[in-house]
Amino acid sequence: MIYYAAMSKPAGKPDERAASEMTALESVLRAMTREGALYEKLPDNKVRCVACAHRCLIPDGRAGVCRVRFNEGGVLRVPAGYAAGLQIDPIEKKPFYHVLPGAQALSFGMLGCDFHCPFCQNWISSQTLRDPAAIAEPTRVTAQEMVAFARRRGAQIATSTYNEPLITSEWAVEVFTLARQAGMVTGYVSNGHATPEALDYLRPWLDCYKVDLKCFSPAGYQRLGGKLEHVLETITGLYARGFWVEIVTLVVPGFNDSEAELRDIARFIKGVSPDIPWHATAFHGDYRMDDGRYTSARQIMRAVEIGYEEGLHYVYAGNRPGDVGELENTRCHQCRTLLVERVGFRVLQNNIQAGCCPKCRTRIPGVWTMDDAQTARGRDGSL
Question: pTM for this structure?
Answer without folding.
Answer: 0.91
